[in-house]
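Format is sequence with structure; example below:
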Amino acid sequence: MAGTAVLGRLTWQIAQVADTRQETSRVRTIALDPPSWPGHRAGQHVDVRLTAEDGYQAQRSYSIASAPEQGLELTVERLDYGEVSPYLVDELRPGDGLELRGPIGGYFVWDADDPRPVFLVAGGSGVVPLMAMIRHRIAIDGAAPMRLLYSSRTIEDVIYRTELDKIAAEGTGVEIVHTLTRAQPDGWTGYSGRIDPELVREVAWPATDGAAVFVCGATSFVEAVADGLVGLGYDPRSVKTERYGGIGG
């Protein structure tokens, strides 16, 4: 039975695009309605495949943005020279079909029955799988304290900005901490500059609290954050990382 389930998850299928919404000028969320969906865990991803008229295929992996309670949504950042992301962000429309398989992954996942504090650290579009965790925590009214440290270039580049502001204001048990690396608007009260060991020290829970940590972003970002956490005394086994980059989107 287990083998059958694995094969089922990895079978390609055509999911219909139910809706789309613009998150930033370069980022779009796509709600999908696959004919067969076994459910997913917060932090998993899917593979997406595009096939050209001449038969050429391009395949990329995208994190699932939605909580397990919310169906299937992907949030995609357009990379200017990418083969897949420009189509997903600029061309895909409700009613179109999109070939995908999944869910995939069992390492970079968070389940709400884990009572430990959760420290999430995101750079840019690395917030996507972490947002699935935040939404999952809120959907089931979880008890684990959760904190997101999110690095963006500018305020306009903050993905899910309205939703994150609402979460921060509602006292859901999820703290949202922003830092802007390139420009800050007038009256900005968050942090400025890149995430460094000093900022990690200020925002993270003490290592003695035994927090579960999830870090997602570009490779250099992830390595710097992970090294900073280990330097603070975090057990490397508690720091789970996921990185993007290296292959055009």
